[in-house]
Design goal:
It comes from Prochlorococcus marinus (strain MIT 9301). This is Thioredoxin domain 2. This protein is α+β, with helices and mostly antiparallel strands. The protein has a single domain, classed as Glutaredoxin, CATH 3.40.30.10. The protein is built from 7 helices and 4 strands; from the N terminus they run H-H-H-E-H-H-E-H-E-E-H. It has a 4-stranded mixed β-sheet with strand order 2-1-3-4.
């Protein structure tokens, strides 16, 4: 158990250890791409079906994942901020869920680590557009 928690705790404290000056003191992901009708429908479906994205505002893969959805769809997702200093942080939930990296998707109780294409998310969740 300690072997799992120590790397996670180190990971969650990285914003303090790593120089994050490029973020200009932002404490949340800022998505800039435009959403498609399909990505908005998928995001709503994911939220309605209890899918959760565990994320950290400073994580480049999390931003890449979010940009796939676009800014309008991203607002529809159920996103849990794991970074201790992030806006609306839920670090303890991330520890309790044993989140080991970002982004992590929780789909039907299963944790899936990594950036997933919208097509992969559709397939994993049974979304049909």
């Amino acid at each position: 158990m300690k072997r799992l928690l120590i790397p996670l705790l180190v990971l969650l404290t990285l914003p303090i250890v790593v120089d994050s000056s490029h973020l200009k003191n932002q404490r949340e992901l800022i998505v800039t791409t435009e959403s498609t009708r399909e990505s908005i429908e998928l995001a709503k479906y994911l939220k309605d079906n209890g899918v959760v994205k565990y994320s950290a505002y400073w994580c480049p893969n999390c931003l890449n994942q979010s940009e796939l959805f676009g800014k309008q769809a991203y607002k529809e997702l159920n996103v849990v901020e794991c970074a201790r200093d992030g806006i609306n942080s839920q670090t303890q939930l991330c520890i309790d869920k044993r989140i080991k990296g970002f982004p992590t998707w929780e789909i039907n109780g299963k944790l899936i680590l990594g950036v997933l294409s919208l097509k992969e998310l559709s397939k994993l969740t049974g979304f049909k557009n």
